[in-house]
Amino acid sequence: MKKGFDNKKYLKIQSEKIRERFKLFDKLYLEIGGKLFDDSHATRVLPGFQKDSKINMFKELKDDLEIIFCINANDIERNKIRGEYGNTYDNEVLKLINYSNEMGFTVNSVVITLYKNQVNADKFINKLNRNGIKTYIHTFTKGYPTDVETIVSEEGYGANPYIETSKKLILVNAPGPGSGKLATCLSQLYHENKRGVNAGYAKFETFPVWNLPLRHPINLAYEAATADLKDVNMIDPFHLECYNQKAVNYNRDIELFPVLKAILNKISETDIYKSPTDMGVNMLGYCITNNEVVEEAAKKEIVRRYYNELMNYKLGLSDEDAYQKIKLLMNELNIDENYLDVTKSALDKSEKENLPVIALKINKKIITGKQTDLLTPAASVILNTIKYLSKIPDDIKLLSPSVLKPMQELKGHMNDDRRLNLTETLIALGICSATNDMIKKALTNIPKLNGCDAHATYIVTNGDKTTLKKLNINLTCESYYKENLE
């Protein structure tokens, strides 16, 4: 895959920008927008971007920083899911804490925001406390968003407990949007100011990219990714008025800025930021090396988001506004549902065989896998792909009936579908590779599947879907259950 992004340059100039902002204050609360770990969206739209770039750039500052994670009590109560990985927000917080600890970062605490004695929130707090993780409870801020005098008072932010911190840089992150990161930062600034500490706020948001054109595919891909939130990119009017420079931001930050500016000025009695863009420390746009490559990658991502939101609509998980908005973005870019090469190939093969099919593209070649009596389409397509990469003829079977039969019988005893799914197939291959050099060679090609596009003619079940994601395959699905095709 051609690269369109210089990750090494990004790590260098982004960390320099953060250090530059860091020097303006005795303590900086840096709100991390999006994913601190595993930023797969950025990886897909910016070929060359490494998914853990954000957290890696903080390694050199590890001794000077600590992390606060925020989670909305209402999201805990309704078991909100982080769609990309299927984790509930509370489990995602635990995963983020574990990742941080494993990398040697200091996790300060978890803040439960908008707390109103929710039952599941209380259970989560107990779980955190029993595992030695400090928790703080923040309720709705009195007076927010219009009464600045009340917000910046003992009745407002002062009603929240002060989070004890010892480092100079505090990263504030969350499992998803609406988790209360900004309110936590502002509450801390209020308490720090009362203690005579010159504390500041900044935002590290990856998208939209402020110094790319408003309708650049990268920025449109951000709109597609947040279609369910109804985010819209806009020219920052405050930045344009103050600096006579066009900068892209999104509606929520622009709409909130007058209130945020008033709150910050009230807390610190200084006027630091003239626009929402000023608050950011995003150097992403300076590291694009091939605009044609990233535009193409962004267009593909928009189509993936369309299929995902259409499926969510069919499953009753979202309303029709989300996928229809993405369809409008596709129309604007003059692309359609068949923009990914794998889509038509999968549909044509499925129509011909009258069976569920997955098509996968690798090295400019499209390989298909259909459902059989032995395997799911996901298992078939991965077997066919690694055989192709290993130059193993089609008529040679990697797994013999003597291996498959006992596995199928065991599944039958458990009243399960006798077909082997992708995980079971990979396990069988792994076992057989100990005595079969051909299989061992085929399995060495598994890493080459990273970043490949695949399209299924049906809604892929959680088991195969999860395994395909673990292989970093970009999967899209038609919004039909398998049974409709049999």
Identify the notable features of this structure and list them briefly.
single chain, 486 residues, alpha/beta, six-stranded parallel sheet, four-stranded mixed sheet, 20 helices, 14 strands
Describe the structure.
It is a single chain. The strands form four sheets. This protein has a six-stranded parallel beta sheet with strand order 6-5-2-7-1-8, sandwiched between helices. The model has no long low-confidence stretch (mean pLDDT 93). The protein starts with 6 loop residues before the first helix and ends in a 9-residue tail after the last strand. α8 packs parallel to α11, α9 (217-225) runs parallel beside α13 (291-314) and α16 crosses α18. It is built from 20 helices and 14 strands. It is globular and about 75 Å long. The relative contact order is 0.10. It is of the alpha/beta class.
Mean pLDDT across all amino acids: 93
The computed structural class is: alpha/beta
| Unreliable sequence segments | none
Shape category: globular
**Biggest sheet details:** 6 strands, parallel
The radius of gyration is 25 Å
Quaternary state of this entry equals single chain
**Beta-strand fraction estimate:** 5-15%
What is the number of beta strands? 14
Strands of the widest sheet, in order across it, are 6-5-2-7-1-8
Number of helices: 20
Q: Report helical residue fraction.
A: 40-55%
Instruction: Give the CA-CA distance, first to last residue.
Output: 36 Å
Question: Brief overview, please?
Answer:
The chain is of the alpha/beta class and 486 residues long. The protein is built from 20 helices and 14 strands.
